[in-house]
Design brief:
single chain; Translation Initiation Factor IF3; Alpha-Beta Plaits; 3 domains; four-stranded antiparallel beta sheet
C-alpha cells in the first residue's frame, strides 16, 4: 500500500499530520491538550419497580425421547396458556431453554447406561402489572403440575426516562462539586467543560428466587415483594482551566 506523508499548516497549538492511504482512509494525529481537571459524578434515583420477570417451565423424565417430549410439550403448552389467560401478551413470553438430555445409570462402577431422557422447556414471562405477579406465577405453576419448575424472579424499572433525567442532573452536580473542590485545592480556576461522557444503569441487579415446588401453591398465594429499584447515571467530565 502506497502512502504519502503530507505536512499541513499548524492548527491551534500543535502541528497536524495526515497520512493518506490509497484506499481513501485518512488517519489524523495531533498533540492533545490534556490539561484540566477530570472527575466522575454519580447520580442515583430510587423508584418502585414497575416490571417483573420470571422463568417458568417444565421438566419431564421418561423412558424414551418421544414420551418425554410429548409430556413436556403438553405441560409447557398448559403453562403458556395459563400465562396468556392472565393477560400476558404473546410478545412478553419468550422461550429461553429447550433441551433433551439422556439420563444415565452409573451403578456398580460399570459403563453408564441410558435409563431415560430428560426434556426441559422454559419460558421467560414479562409482567407489566405487578399487582397480578403472584397470581400469574401460582397459576402457571399449577398449570404445569408436578412437571413445573420455577427458576427465578427479578424486577426492573421500564418507565425510567424522567428518572434518568433526575439522576443525570444529580451526577452533573456531583461532578461539579468535586471539580470545584479540586480546583480550589490546586489553586486554579475552572473553565468550561471540555468533554462529558455518560454511563447508565437503568435496572437494579436481578433478584432471584429459589426453585419453588409445584405442590401447595394452589392453597395459598405466594408472597412476593417487588421492592424498589435504582436508576444510576455516572458522568465523567473534564474541565478546562482558565
Amino acid at each position: 500500500m502506497n502512502r504519502k506523508l503530507l505536512l499541513l499548516p499548524a492548527i491551534l497549538a500543535g502541528t497536524l499530520f495526515a497520512t493518506a492511504c490509497t484506499d481513501g482512509t485518512t488517519v489524523n494525529t495531533a498533540p492533545a491538550d490534556v490539561s484540566g481537571i477530570t472527575v466522575t459524578g454519580r447520580g442515583e434515583v430510587e423508584a418502585p419497580s414497575d416490571t417483573g420477570f420470571f422463568d417458568v417451565g417444565v421438566q419431564v423424565t421418561a423412558a424414551t425421547v418421544e414420551d418425554a417430549r410429548n409430556r413436556a410439550a403438553a405441560s409447557a403448552d398448559a403453562v403458556i396458556k395459563s400465562l396468556k389467560s392472565n393477560g400476558i401478551d404473546q410478545k412478553d413470553i419468550k422461550t429461553t431453554n429447550l433441551s433433551i438430555q439422556p439420563q444415565y445409570d452409573y451403578k456398580n462402577g460399570s459403563e453408564p447406561k441410558i435409563t431415560g431422557y430428560i426434556v426441559t422447556n422454559t419460558v421467560e414471562a414479562k409482567v407489566r402489572k405487578l399487582e397480578n405477579f403472584s397470581k400469574i406465577i401460582d397459576d402457571a405453576v399449577k398449570a404445569g403440575g408436578n412437571d413445573a419448575r420455577l427458576q427465578g424472579i427479578r424486577f426492573g424499572i421500564e418507565d425510567n426516562e424522567k428518572l434518568i433525567e433526575q439522576a443525570r442532573e444529580a451526577a452533573m452536580k456531583d461532578a461539579k462539586k468535586k471539580a470545584d473542590q479540586l480546583a480550589k485545592l490546586g489553586g486554579v480556576s475552572l473553565g468550561d467543560p471540555a468533554a462529558i461522557n455518560e454511563t447508565q444503569t437503568t435496572e437494579p441487579p436481578p433478584k432471584f428466587a429459589r426453585a419453588v415446588p409445584a405442590t401447595g401453591l394452589a392453597d395459598a398465594a405466594t408472597p412476593i415483594e417487588p421492592g424498589t429499584g435504582a436508576v444510576i447515571v455516572q458522568i465523567s467530565v473534564r474541565w478546562a482551566l482558565k
